[in-house]
Amino acid sequence: MTLAQQALGSVLRFALAWASGYLVREGIWTPDEAGVYVEALAAALAFGVVSLAWSLWQKWRAQQAIEGRW
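The structure assignment produced for this chain is given below.
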């Protein structure tokens, strides 16, 4: 894992922790619900980032093939 990936992960975890803390404080979620939702959202974001990265790689590779560089 690169430094950029680790930094992005830290920022996302901070944002999720802040948002869940706010929702618990406002009484929208219970602390137990917050833990479950944050875990699920973190997993979904991780899979989404991997999916997006793979898609961008495929597009870049196809463009390189069209231009005769690959």
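Interim note for the steering committee: Helices lie at 3-25, 31-66. The first helix runs from residue 3 to 25.
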